[in-house]
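Handoff note, outgoing to incoming analyst
You'll be picking up this chain. Sequence as last confirmed:
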Amino acid sequence: MWLFCIVVATSFAALLIGPYPLSPLDAIALLRQSFLAQSDSTDPAHIVLISIRLPRVVAALLVGAALSAAGACYQTLFRNPLVSPDILGVSAGAGLGAVLGIFLSLPVAAIQMMGFAGGLLAVALVGFVSAAVRTGDRTLILVLAGVVVAALTGAATSLLKVLADPYDQLPAITFWLLGSLSGVKVEDILPAAPAVMLGLVPLILLRWRINVLSLGDEEARSLGIEAGRLRLAVILCATLITASVVALAGVVGWVGLVIPHMARMMVGPSFGRLLPVAALLGAGYLILVDTLARTISAVEVPLGILTAVVGAPFFLWLLAHGRRAWN
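Most recent structure output, in case you need it:
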């Protein structure tokens, strides 16, 4: 409960901070007026708070929670603390789809849809390759297939960057691949939020069964759980979550790798407790990073740069001090 309160307080503070500062009382009044449809849409404070900052804060909450929850799922599923949401190539596939949309000069909604479809198609290709290889450890084959598909989609993305218009398309492609929430509108969030909830709700309902998967397939079968079907369901849900937010915000790294470790250090490895804590931590973390991205300088810093700058040293600290939380 205290963590939820911290996230709410952080989100409210993010609404106040920026080149156009707002007082808490003014923000509360504007939110109340907007909720009652009594606000003046031409008021600069209304435009800043309701049209610009509020959608961005909601998007940061959604993206952070989704990436962290997906990372916790993948790390539990593969029993590997180095696994992140893009392990099966979903981020690379979504990146290729969005880059292709930018290359074809499609509208923003179409670019997001292509990014979403690209992520799902990449994981479908990983599943097809894994099913075609009938020998060896299934989990290892799945991960290796993800690495191969990610490499291929990354090469295709690089080719499109070479062919893109260097004055118009290439800067947009580069900025999108680094991740950003600048310019996010309510219309951009509406398609992503239901998809995230569609993937997150089954994970919440199956959290105790997913916890058993961390013991291994033999132990899961001895407890009456069909490990193969459950693993497939978890992969599909986590992929849906990741593809949805990557299509919205671009490729934002390190969140799904580092934040689940923080949650594991706080509440232990039990997935029933790990999932909600990881989601809340991820939401609060990305709110802080996004606020820093839009206030640290006159030019907005892409999210992917800041998450790497913050996440990489912290992960090194985790490697040195946090191994007991992985067991």
